[in-house]
UniProtKB/TrEMBL annotation, chain A:
Record domain Carrier: where: 5-83
Organism annotation: Streptomyces lanatus
Highest taxon in the source lineage: Bacteria
Entry keywords, A to Z: Phosphopantetheine, Phosphoprotein
InterPro entries: ACP-like_sf, PKS_PP-bd, PP-bd_ACP, Ppantetheine_attach_site
Name under which the protein is recorded: Acyl carrier protein
Signal peptide annotation: none
One Pfam family in the UniProt entry: PP-binding
TrEMBL record, chain B:
Domain of life: Bacteria
SMART domains in alphabetical order: PKS_KS (SM00825)
InterPro entries cross-referenced by the UniProt entry: Beta-ketoacyl_synthase, Ketoacyl_synth_C, Ketoacyl_synth_N, PKS_Beta-ketoAc_synthase_dom, Thiolase-like
All copies of domain Ketosynthase family 3 (KS3), residue ranges: 4-405
Keyword vocabulary terms for this entry: Acyltransferase, Transferase
Family: Belongs to the thiolase-like superfamily. Beta-ketoacyl-ACP synthases family.
Protein's name according to its UniProt entry: Ketosynthase chain-length factor
Amino acid sequence: MSERKFTFDALKRILREGAGADEGVDLDGDILDADFEELGYESLALLETGGRIEREYGISLDDDIFTDHRTPRALVAAVNELLKDNTVSAA
Amino acid sequence: MSTSTRTVITGIGVATPSGLGIDDFWAATRVGKNAIGRVTHFDPTSYPSRLAGEIRHFAAEELLPSRLIPQTDRMTRLALVAADWAFADAGIKPGDIPEFDMGVVTASTSGGFEFGQNELKKLWSQGSQYVSAYQSFAWFYAVNSGQISIRNGMRGPSGVVVSDHAGGLDAIAQARRQIRKGSKVIFSGGFDASICTWGWVAQIAGGRMSTSDDPDRAFLPFDADADGYVPGEGGALLVLEDELTARERGARTVYGEIAGYGSTFDPKPGSGREPGLRRAIEVALADAGVETGEVDVVFADAAGTPRLDREEADAINAVFGRHGVPVTAPKTMTGRLYSGAAPVDVVSAVLAIREGLIPPTVNVEPSPEYGIDLVTAQPRSASVRTALVLARGHGGYNSAVVVRAVD
């Protein structure tokens, strides 16, 4: 089985579908290192985002995933770590 | 606190099957345009009731930020857009007035049924992990007040009233209390929008919905053929403020005053005692300091079932005498809007005052046995200075509000 990757583009799509995008925030801009809170996503929006990532990628995220990984770059990296672990354990 | 404080209406946001915004709404309402039709939000073929007053051409995605779409039921989207219109109509912007001086008090009958239905479907068909995190509040009765408050930075006294149709007036009364206690601006009214299969079966279970397929013969309050109501969706929001605040800031329109309010609860069924509506009317008139002869029009609750129509006619006649006051029910054009119905009638009342024209009750051939002067078929030109709006809620709620012209 080939390793599945969680991309920045996938995160942006999931954010838009699950929570929308704040007026005045351009998700296609330079936001990789912006705090999710600065981008206008409150805890419920992040809960919904996490739920969608879990469903789509068949993984389970820790409850504090968004407090430990507060930016898109950090979250994408953390999810990819999980996906790699899953692939390894499945192999 | 000043006891002479008058609570006035300085802005309106209205969205009903008759029209979106004051101009469209009134253009249709003043001439009696029927907006009831076969349900299109879902296929009603297999249901015993198939007619509704639906709002068409409401493009929430174009009117609200994308952040709000995934977290809102249809009723909340209508309420949020109406709040924007109400701000614009009042000539104020969020931020013009200190945030703790502005509040939101709305009424709700159903909550966000359509949102809840979609999430329950996901729960059954896909599993709990597919249910939106926003289900936690999107269904909730208080969500319209909350979302309007958050979007517009209104952190003053806020809340929700849940008493079916009566709630639309109870909310306005609660807003008036807050203004008397010192709040500068309170947005008040109600919105419901449950024309979805889950909302539909819940209403059908109440046993009072019309089963007619003829939009012109389905909702006939005070008609000998009355046999239930047609549901609708929508409502209205009013910008209420203390008259002095309104004058000081140079409010461009003062539509009228919330001059009086009364509410009562019906006695236990089977007790043989008189229903509470007459007392609610009398309390509201006394609160306003209005004599019966000063009331120019009554906007009826117009339940559309014979027993309730009888009770309402009896109450009106007990206070005003048989044929003692013009009575109208513009909601015959839209169906019953639940928490939105009475705020919409208050809007009609102030527009009737402004134009000097009583909007008609459509489709109804009034039964003479009710003894009321129902304005039917054609609108009636009349000098309207004082209007009485009635609303009754399932389970025994009766409320009455007196709306009066302000010079």
